[in-house]
Amino acid sequence: MNLMALEGLPATSTFPASAGTLAALDAISAAGFDGVQFATPGTAQELSHCRGIGLGIAASGRVNLPAETDALAQQFADDGYECATLHVGWGLEDDQQACRLIESVIEASCKWRIPLYIETHRATIFQDMWRTVQFVRQFPDIEINADFSHWYTGQEMVYGGFEQKVAFLAPIFDRVRFIHGRIGNPGCMQVRIDTNATEPPLYVQHFKRLWSLCFRSGGRIYFTPELLAPDIFYARTFPNGDSIAAEESDRWEQSLLLKQIAEQCFEQAACHA
Fold this sequence. Notes:
The protein has a seven-stranded parallel beta sheet. The protein is globular, with a radius of gyration of 18 Å. The protein has ten helices and nine strands. It has 273 residues and is α/β, with parallel strands linked by helices. It has one domain: TIM Barrel (Alpha-Beta Barrel), CATH 3.20.20. The protein has helices at residues 21-30, 44-52, 69-78, 95-112, 129-138, 149-152, 162-168, 170-173, 202-215, 251-272; strands spanning 35-37, 56-63, 83-88, 116-119, 144-146, 176-181, 222-225, 237-239, 245-247. Helix 3 (69-78) runs parallel beside helix 4 and helix 9 crosses helix 10.
């Protein structure tokens, strides 16, 4: 569970947000999650509590210049994180600059013995499907954190043929080791999933397909719901009866649903492995 998904939850959420951070970690564990991802460095007390209740810990960060990567990886390793996801570059780098950033991530990961997963995220060097595939072909040791919503919506994967793009992304799926669980549609990158629908919308089926292809690659993989708050323009809000903007859904309940969907995809992928 990505802890950013719990930020700014309204009082109507079923998550016990008012109980404090340690109690929140207990609630995450009780809900069946195996670990948490920290958006900012966890305190010594928080990290110790996670270990005490059997929750794994992952980190996240940003690397803008190659010189920044080594120190960040050392910090993650020294704090005992299992792995980390990284936003790398701003997406304006030329190929030479981007390659040096990728090299720095691979080198730091090997040096400090901590997996570092480059994220498919807007405003990074992996914001574009075509360019990411070229980098993967050039650097076969790349490991990826797939947040497919940035491509599905940002590059409108259904426009021009979803299946064609899935086939093009084959080199990516084999290198995905971490997934940020979020489902978007062609116009909005984080939407509510209707649990009462008799048949999932096409975009839900598309995300299930993408996740399943990652799961089929084998090896260790992390699935982490990351439904973000409206103040950073992810969760949609709509006026309710008293004109106060309300979130489209309970992000905690939706996170549990994404977890359930991912578990089903994983089981199906294992049957086809």
